[in-house]
Amino acid sequence: MTDTTHTPTEDALVIFTPSGKRGRFALGTPVLTAARQLGVDLDSVCGGRGICSKCQITPGYGEFSKHGVTVEADALTDWNAVEERYKTKRGMIDGRRLGCQAKVMGDVVIDVPPESQVHKQVIRKSASQRDIVMDPATRALYVEVAEPDMHEPTGDFERLVTALQQQWGVGEVAAELPILRRLQPALRKGNWSVTVALHKGNHDARHRILDIWPGFHEGKLYGLAIDLGSTTIAAHLCDLHDGSVLASSGVMNPQIRFGEDLMSRVSYAMMNPGGDVEMTAAVRTALNGLVQAIATEAKIVPTSIYEITFVCNPVMHHLLLGIDPVELGQAPFALATSGSLVLDAADLDIKAVNPAARVYILPCIAGHVGADCAAVALSEEPNKSKEMVLIVDVGTNAELLLGNESRVLACSSPTGPAFEGAQISSGQRAAPGAIERVEIDPETKEARFRVIGSDLWSSDPGFVAATSNSGITGICGSGIIEAVAEMRMAGLVDQGGLIGSADQTGTTRCIAEGRTHSYVLHDGTANGGPLITVTQGDIRAIQLAKAALYAGAKLLMDEMQIETVEKVVLAGAFGAHISPKHAMVLGMIPDVALDKVISAGNAAGTGARIALCNVAARDYIEATVHQIHKVETAIEPRFQEHFVNASAIPNAVDTFPELSKIVTLPQVSFNTSGSGGAGGRRRRG
Amino acid sequence: MTDTTHTPTEDALVIFTPSGKRGRFALGTPVLTAARQLGVDLDSVCGGRGICSKCQITPGYGEFSKHGVTVEADALTDWNAVEERYKTKRGMIDGRRLGCQAKVMGDVVIDVPPESQVHKQVIRKSASQRDIVMDPATRALYVEVAEPDMHEPTGDFERLVTALQQQWGVGEVAAELPILRRLQPALRKGNWSVTVALHKGNHDARHRILDIWPGFHEGKLYGLAIDLGSTTIAAHLCDLHDGSVLASSGVMNPQIRFGEDLMSRVSYAMMNPGGDVEMTAAVRTALNGLVQAIATEAKIVPTSIYEITFVCNPVMHHLLLGIDPVELGQAPFALATSGSLVLDAADLDIKAVNPAARVYILPCIAGHVGADCAAVALSEEPNKSKEMVLIVDVGTNAELLLGNESRVLACSSPTGPAFEGAQISSGQRAAPGAIERVEIDPETKEARFRVIGSDLWSSDPGFVAATSNSGITGICGSGIIEAVAEMRMAGLVDQGGLIGSADQTGTTRCIAEGRTHSYVLHDGTANGGPLITVTQGDIRAIQLAKAALYAGAKLLMDEMQIETVEKVVLAGAFGAHISPKHAMVLGMIPDVALDKVISAGNAAGTGARIALCNVAARDYIEATVHQIHKVETAIEPRFQEHFVNASAIPNAVDTFPELSKIVTLPQVSFNTSGSGGAGGRRRRG
Known about the structure:
Chains A, B: It comes from Cypionkella aquatica. Chains A, B: Pfam families: RACo_C_ter (PF14574), RACo_linker (PF17650), Raco_middle (PF17651). Two copies of one chain form a homodimer. Chain A folds into five domains: about 10-115, Roll (Ubiquitin-like (UB roll)), CATH 3.10.20; about 120-215, Ubiquitin-like (UB roll) (Roll); about 235-360, 2-Layer Sandwich (Nucleotidyltransferase, domain 5), CATH 3.30.420.480; about 375-415 and about 545-660, Nucleotidyltransferase, domain 5 (2-Layer Sandwich), CATH 3.30.420; about 420-540, no CATH class. Chain A is about 30% helix and about 25% strand. Chain A has 18 helices and 31 strands. Chain A has a six-stranded mixed sheet with strand order 16-15-14-17-19-18, with helices on both faces. Chain A has a six-stranded mixed sheet with strand order 30-29-20-21-22-31, with helices on both faces. In chain A, strands 2-1-7-3-6 form a five-stranded mixed sheet, covered by helices on one side.
């Protein structure tokens, strides 16, 4: 039973699932050919020559009433020698066929499994309508090249290009000299067939051959998505064929020794002739080390890495490129270049990867809002949000995006490294042994906590044993936020950020340190461990950081002429670990219902990965950044006013009605300079 | 008196000569603006800002009846301070004005002198209808760039590009990292004006900034046109603004130590692993030396060289690029790449020029017919000839082109270095002291000659004194051709190439050397000088070389199905010095009326210079080479037959009717093996 009148002996109906695409084909047509003619997404690297096995399909047999077709057992040609050889050598799931070998002999329903699709979904975006499908700039293509003909002379390269154009439908193709040098031996060794790694630039219409191998090349091509932060350089190693992440790794940015935050690095370049060159050399050396390390971890040779995408803030951007960032340290904060860049890895002295590897650096938005913010915009797509969303990428510098499908604003705010555990007396990086969660009983003022590496609370039986390897070593970024917020909720800290004395708070955990007080979170001294306290200085550092963040958000809201936002997205490696409630108690983010605070993980890193896996995303973000309006915090007079108000916990003027529904903050004051100590005593509610 | 009705106070008629373009313009319009709007070719580097002085024009005053206009003395605004300052500083021809300063105040006739035209004619081609006008790929452009605006953030580079697009109408613009590094300081030092060296690729639609200077840059940009031959590397240093040749220089190709001719170099690469790398390094080192030398000679800094064009045969082409030429040594003689190439000079290790300098290598036609032949085709344009023309570029390898506007054929022929004086017993390079012209009296068999460096014949009074500095040192290529041809005409050499004995020829200048004879051209031994003879071996070497050349021409004529050609063009540095009559007596070239044999000088070098000065010529020759059909001499059976016939002087089978009209060759034979010595005696006519 078929859906149109036809002569059964001449052609047959082929239906592909899940696409539902269908068409009639002459008997003997290979399934791959049918798929291509119908525009079905069926992969092939070898061009249908039974070599690569990427075109595996699953034929369905029996009655398919939904499609109005019955598939007979002989609907495809028999399992053939090529398939047998492949299965013996590599293995193949039962019921699978090679689409290039199996030929249509009757009506048939063909399922294309996800792994046989070129445009596999690989990056499921956290807060977005669409998923990212594979469409990488660099892919491996197998071609058979015409042999030279003395009477119709053309270069071997020109014949290779013709083959690529005819067999793969690519446009103009170029090759650098090192590839031209290797071309003739490869063609002859491969008996006029080669595999090339072909790179499609999004700026330049021409493709470029990055590598060439005789015959069919089994090896995989890899790419790196790098989030180059002021403090940390994080990299994801991805398979450029299926988008899978083989390894993720990070190293400290060695530029830290020239200055902890961005402006201190710009100052270093200003004060020290050649300082920018030093910092450029440092970060490039670190990148080479990171490439080696991640390749070793994933057990691949680093020369099989053909692409790198970078996201970074403007100062990191300039220092990576070898451009003196001095102009970024002073108004009008002019970038040397704001557009995206397509480079050779060699231009950046990244030598560990393939010598022909290409680099794509996402565009910057402005002098203080960099490619990292563009990457967040690519990943989170505020420009497609129906709700008014505030996206906060918390790092040494915070990037903020506010907007919806009508308009998007961006700014950056110099939060400093406090949120990352730096400038905190017991602060440390997020690592095993670091306190990451804190709870303080509002009655007893006793604390319990969890450390990275264990799911147990410190009050749980077995906690000591579970943490004996790591110990309890300090407080990481999310831990300090929770600690300060819990201290505020427990009435140990007042709105102004002062820690009360033991007398004022009624707990001996508040100890005097000079003229101020500290709260003892954990005393490990009896066992030779550290005394972990939250000091008045720690509170001040957090106040400065969170006030900068909130003031930035308020500036964007002023520009947008709104009083409240509808959704908050916390991004950044750190953002994923922040408790929304504690962030709001601190007044880090504007008041919003807690279920409207969403964690997006490392959105900048995700943006880098999207740009790595999908070349069209590069065009998309280049167009999108032009529509994002940048607000300059550094010269906006209202920033200072917002900042001062936001120094209070949660805020001196802004009310937090959504927060009030779930948390009542004690009305305490420990400021003894005016009303005396007793007046500050906590009133029990 | 004007040609249209108008209100005299509002606009005026402006007529440009020599173009004849005319139009009405509002009073106060600068002459440069009027020129631009009419499409008149009036130069400007600074964009009309009174800085560069390239827009000088000469206004005409009085009655111009031809144009129907009378020009009053106040037709242009008065000489102004900008012009005064320029004239004081640099000087200016009386009557000249700066087109950007002088404004139209009444009807006026404006002459644009040749040096103020952008598209100056610079290369007058020897045998062609059209002349080459300046349209170089790289030019200096002055631009004023918008200052950064914090509220509308864009990169400095992006604003520079916008300025270039708005002020110079260019398309997409790119810059490499070294330029981006220098961009911000240059813009600020130049108070937001810069001059850039902008390169327009013919493959890539994008322009590229090669250099940048603060403000207006006075310095000139230069280019090199290089003819990379097997034996000699010749370079012309050209001003990229006006096309003038500042210096021409040449060095020996150091690859000679690996083999005198092309095939021996290919053999060296085959027999010695890494041999190709050695030869590549040798030629690149020589190129760096040549760049330094020619820059020193012209008194310019080599970093002001921004472009190099190369022409060369396929083996030189591959060795320059670092590609092993092994495939060129065996059928099917496959080139690694036949297309033109656009590279960085740094890709070829040419370090002496500007670090951003670009290289253009003309396309090859086939495995034995290279970019040098393409350059000859560009210079001589056989494809535009109404006559059937044979173009012979004589070098160590001869390149031949045959055709007319209907069809063009090409081949190469391995003549070897005999025509360049190598493999000749008294042979030497063309240098002072070398015999270049020879006459032998057919009656007395006495010779007279001229040497390079003097216009006197050796029979003239004062010859000895005139040549006392150089001496008489040997025979150069054109000298040996004349000597052998004169010997044939004087009956000293027979059709088979045998030199007769003193007895057979009746002159004691024929001396025995073993079983063969030599002819004494000059005996300097009495004064300690050399004995310069033409030996039987010399005749054999010339026979082999000229037979190869003629056989190549005959193959092309066979393919074209013609018996005679209508014109012969002798190209190559050597071709310029060959006497057409003597070449035809030898049977080097097909029979044609002597006035139809034309010397084109170094046509390959001219082609390189055309490609340097005119970027459109690159597209043109790339399209043209595809229409040139290549004939492969190496595997064509008829080549051998033609070669054997052409070994006779002039030829065993072909008649030379045109030659017969002016020269009667003696019917002599000195072959004593068959009919004995006496039978070979010359019969006097």
